[in-house]
Amino acid sequence: MIEMGGVSAHNDQLLSTLEDVADGFMQAGDRGKEAAARFDLGRYLFQLDRGGAAFEQLRRAAEILEQDGLAAPAAQALLGCGHALTTEGRHEDSLPWFDRAIGQFTSCQDKAGELEALAAKLEALIDLNRWSDTKLSNEIIAATEHKESLRLLTFRLVAFRYQTQARLAAGDPVGSRGPAQQAADVASRLGDPHTEATFRLALAHNLRILKELGPAAEEYEKVLDVVRDLPGADDLEREALKGLEATMDD
After folding, report:
1. I need a surface site. Which of 41, 66, 139, 173 has the fewest CB within 10 A?
2. b/e for 82-104, b at 16 or more Cβ within 10 A?
3. Is there a contact between 208 and 246 (Cβ–Cβ < 8 Å)?
4. DSSP assignment letter at 182
5. CA Rg, the chain, in Å?
């Protein structure tokens, strides 16, 4: 068995080595290798949940890559900067980094990368409870229509999640029905039963509010089917049972 202290010491040693390599390339004036080393160091720090330190390394890598006109790797570094900031709870600060990543992905015609950055920005907006930006979600939905790539479906789910929560925040149960249904269907295609059940439950609640009791009962039953024997879904099961019982009594 590996002791936790040993793992920590190994991580610290590897980080120290990566930092020395990056600093060595900087002192030698080899910008390309410095950027690559700082990018790798930033990714490793991110994996260790050291978002602030990861941001600083990725920021330096992005700076070099942008100055050298290397759009594709610059886009990845900028995207990493945004993600590193969100792990630190700095969602507002992450937005311009996602915008810069979007610009670089667009310039190198990497549509999948562009959509990934759009979805990352949309997730930051969700965390900020900012619901006025419908353009981003519509763009992602249009670009992922009829796509079967799991990666693209993940971005599509983010867009429908945004639209569902935006309509609910506006007190619009009618408007939330479509995106909630779509989010549940995409989650099902992704093999994510917990997320599917969450959106089906929201859809069922809205249908009940709208007095569409038959469809509401069907959605509650679908939730129960999805969460049956699903670990960590006890709350969803209880809510679905409660909602189904209330629907039958209405």
Report:
1. 139
2. bbbbbeeebbeebbebbebbbbb
3. yes
4. H
5. 22
